[in-house]
Amino acid sequence: MNYEVLEGAEEFFYEGNHVGVLVIHGFTGSTQSMHYLGERFAEAGFTVFGPRLTGHGTAPEDMERASYEDWIKDVEKGLNKLQETCSEIFVCGLSMGGTLTLYLAENYPEIKGIMPINAAVYMPDLIENYETLSQSEMQFVEGIGSDIKQAGIKELAYSKTPVKSMSDILLLSRLVRDNLSKITAPALIFKSTEDHVVPPENSFQIYEAISSVGKEIVELENSYHVATLDADKELIADRSIQFINARI
């Protein structure tokens, strides 16, 4: 069965200069969460691509059919797309998009810099929940979208999460966590001080484990997990653009 892409969840591309920025959305979310950041990068003159991860932005039943290998292929294709016209590439991702950002940095040392936002590498509560759910007949559980501090803002994300997909994000997280020391690219790590989806300690674990000489954690005090739609989105954009401009 083919599922239609929801309005606002489509992939997006902005043609700009020789600097390419790949922006990656999160688990059960959509490109909608990265639109503002993508637009700001484009305004700064960069070439920007925001891919829609397989099974996202359509229906939870579609996501259930996807695997973490599909998501890796999606971001690798995105990297290749930018490399066709860009000589310098940066990667920015939210949540699982941050995990995929780290994966790319582990495997593609030519990446000039990364900006993971509330990236997931170790989620003990999710591991425990999945172990219980995997023994049950449950196909879906309540969604995790719209963890946003600012009132009146809604994330375009699934209202339910496939249990099978929980296994995929856990496998991806473990794969990335085991290889963090391979990362040498400069890293600007964004961390919400209060996050109800990914434990904030993940950002410290990433900071400590990567081999990058240039690395920094930026605290987001006014945002929850979906910080790219929250009160600190301007701060994320401003600091990221400064980070990129300092390295090109």
Describe the structure.
- Helix 4 (96-107) runs parallel beside helix 6.
- The chain has one domain (12-245): 3-Layer(aba) Sandwich (Rossmann fold), CATH 3.40.50.
- It is built from eight helices and nine strands.
- The longest helix is centred in the first third of the chain and has 16 residues, at 68-83.
- It has 248 residues and is of the alpha/beta class.
Q: Topology, pairings included?
A:
Blueprint: E1 12-14, E2 19-24, H1 35-43, E3 47-50, H2 60-64, H3 68-83, E4 88-94, H4 96-107, E5 113-117, H5 124-133, E6 140-142, E7 160-162, H6 163-177, E8 187-192, H7 201-209, E9 215-220, H8 233-245
Parallel strand pairs: 2-3, 2-4, 4-5, 5-8, 8-9
Antiparallel strand pairs: 1-3, 6-7
Helix pairs in contact: 1-8, 3-4, 4-6, 5-6
What low-confidence regions span 5 or more consecutive residues with pLDDT below 50? none
CATH superfamily: Alpha/Beta hydrolase fold, catalytic domain
The CATH class: Alpha Beta
Order of helices and strands: EEHEHHEHEHEEHEHEH
CATH fold-level label: Rossmann fold
How many domains? The number is 1
